[in-house]
Amino acid sequence: MRIGVISDTHISDKSKHVPRVILDAFKHVDLIIHAGDLVSLGVIEELESVCLKVVVVAGNMDQEAVRKKYPVKQVLEIFDYRVGLMHGSGAPLNLVELLKGAFKEDVCDLIIFGHSHKPVNERMGGILFFNPGSATDLSAAYNSYGIIELKKRPVNSGPAPDRQDEIEAKIIKI
């Protein structure tokens, strides 16, 4: 399964859009995940125009309409992977520790987050932590999004010796 990952778009009802290069790339994914701080529900409409399956969590800067519609934390079951999804909050330096605590009972293979506007693609303690960075922040070193590929294992293949080999994640600069 190919997943497009975006976060921290901070797009209001009156300004900007999801960059065309991202929408074009997301035409070739099975699922889009937005890791929060979309700000306006209009972002979802743009994403759904290229992929009907869009999963979202609310971030700390999201409008009330977004916070009412989407949770702040989700755990997805995709094939036999457990994928944690949360925007994050507080100081960016402590973000991974916050996420480890928030998902400690969930036994995730992958945790997708946002908040810091800085890309992360790092394995820690058997979990891949993935932040696509910000797609639109003009003060960021660069704008980016992510593509994650989850490989489906054959039904009778037994346990995988290293699940991380089955998750391919890329940060893509725009």
Structure description:
The structure is a single chain. The longest helix has 8 residues, at 95-102. β1 (2-6), α1 (20-25) and β2 form a beta-alpha-beta unit. 16% of the residues lie in helices and 29% in strands. It has helices at residues 20-25, 42-48, 64-69, 95-102, and strands at 2-6, 31-34, 54-56, 73-78, 81-86, 110-112, 120-124, 127-131, 144-150, 167-173. The protein has a single domain, classed as Purple Acid Phosphatase, chain A, domain 2. The model has no long low-confidence stretch (mean pLDDT 91). With 174 residues, the chain is an alpha/beta fold.
Tell me the helix content. 10-25%
Could you give the distance between the termini?
23 Å
Report the biggest beta sheet as strand number plus sense, adding barrel if it closes. Answer: 5 strands, mixed
Rg, Cα atoms, Å: 15 Å
List the domain count as a whole number. Answer: 1
List low-pLDDT spans.
none
> What portion of residues belong to β-strands?
25-35%
Shape field: globular
Q: Which strand order does the major sheet show? A: 3-2-1-9-10
Quantity of strands, as a count: 10
Summarize model confidence as the mean pLDDT. 91
N-to-C series of helices and strands: EHEHEHEEHEEEEE
| CATH homolog superfamily | Metallo-dependent phosphatases
Mind telling me which CATH architecture this is?
4-Layer Sandwich
**Helical segment count:** 4
- The level 1 CATH classification is Alpha Beta
Structural class: alpha/beta
| CATH fold-level topology | Purple Acid Phosphatase, chain A, domain 2
